[in-house]
Write a structure and sequence with these properties.
single chain, two-stranded antiparallel sheet
Amino acid sequence: MTIRGEAAQLYEITHLGTGRGPEVRTAEAGEVAAVIEYAGEHGMQVLVRPCRPAGNPGTKGEDAS
């Protein structure tokens, strides 16, 4: 999905306490609220982190000059 020619923001959702270990999936910004609401209704804990877009390595290790 694209928004104004840019890739939609993706988030990494980690479901904690599932018994087998954490379950991780990726969701678009529009899905995050529903995931959090569902987790709250079922007594689950989730961690939500933004995913770095593909092709954007970030600032670690980059030369500042």
